[in-house]
Amino acid sequence: MRKPLLQLALDTHDLPSALAPLQQAAPHIDIIEVGTILCLSEGMDAVRIIRSLFPDKTILADVRIAEAGGIIAKMAFEAGSDWVSVVSGAASSTAEVVYDVAQQHGGDVQIELSEGWTWNQAARWREIGIDQAIIHRSRDAEAQGELAWASADMDNIRRLSEMGYRVTVAGSVRVDDIPAFASIPVYIFIAGRSIRNAPDPAAAAADFQEAIQRTYSVERREA
Ligand code: 5RP
Ligand code: MG
């Protein structure tokens, strides 16, 4: 099983607050996420500036497209993003147009799976060509006390990956959560607050990489 990548989500209200932890953690990060909150507060300038500072990193703009897919995707790709996100509640025509724009820019699309998504939709997105999905534990569910990753999440990751998806895991992921995913084919772990709010973001990101390495190298030895 391939070792998962680590993505740092920057959901801050302004760019300086995002850049400080990013500069520290960057050597340990595979993908930079310009979070929804930062996209809304600073617009695509946040993507533009982060791209100029990190020309070689993969950047996701977590713009959570629900409508006007072609326009929003074009804005994000032209600002320097490699990937954009689409919510599972978007019409499949929206997902399709976003995927087309991504292809034109050499980019990619992640579908964020929220409550109510269906396996029929998952099959349709694969037909469109989309092969990245995010299993996301919502902040709102977390605030209501849903703290552990459910076995239903693990089953969904397995089944999605059998359909050809590369599956990302997000939503208050902590370093202690990683071992629970042993034997689960995760493509990317996203961590936001666990790294950003740590006293030492570089050390926190390094801890994540170590936990991923440990979990998945044990997995490889047992396979
Ligand atoms: C929130 C998001 C966040 O980017 C994602 O949840 C990662 O951040 P955190 O680890 O702080 O939850 O998309 O809706
Ligand atoms: Mg996000």
Give your account of this protein's structure.
The protein has 223 residues and is α/β, with parallel strands linked by helices. The chain starts with a strand and ends with a helix. It has helices at residues 15-25, 36-42, 44-53, 69-79, 92-104, 119-128, 139-143, 151-162, 193-196, 201-222; strands spanning 5-10, 31-34, 58-65, 83-87, 108-113, 132-136, 166-170, 186-191. The relative contact order is 0.16. Helix 1 (15-25) crosses helix 10 (201-222), helix 4 packs parallel to helix 5 (92-104) and helix 5 (92-104) runs parallel beside helix 6 (119-128).
Name the bound molecules.
ribulose-5-phosphate, magnesium ion
What is the name of the CATH architecture? Alpha-Beta Barrel
Largest sheet: 8 strands, parallel, barrel
- What is the gyration radius calculated from CA atoms? 17 Å
Q: Treating each run of at least 4 consecutive H or I residues as one helix, how many helices?
A: 10
The share of residues in helices is 40-55%
Instruction: Indicate the CATH topology.
Output: TIM Barrel
**Unreliable stretches:** none
Strand order of the largest sheet: 1-2-3-4-5-6-7-8
What's the SSE pattern? EHEHHEHEHEHEHHEEHH
Task: From the structure above, extract its key features.
binds magnesium ion; 223 residues; binds ribulose-5-phosphate; TIM Barrel; 8-stranded parallel barrel; alpha/beta; 10 helices; 47% helix; globular
